[in-house]
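Support reply, case 0932

Customer input (verbatim):
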Amino acid sequence: MKNFLEYLGFEPERYHTAWISGSEGQKFADVVTRVVEDVRQVGPSRKMRDAR
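Our regenerated output:
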């Protein structure tokens, strides 16, 4: 999937997968926090910025 997103012009760092059970609320919160931090480090999407 990361290769496909890169082919489309999106940074592969924007894609994350994780297996989380419905009973793993803390794990969900941790994963979401990590994803938000990673995407903030990547910054605004070049693809969306260049489309304007």
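We compared this against your earlier run and they match. Two observations from our side: The chain is about 60% helix and 0% strand. The radius of gyration is 13 Å. Please reopen the case if you see a mismatch on your end.
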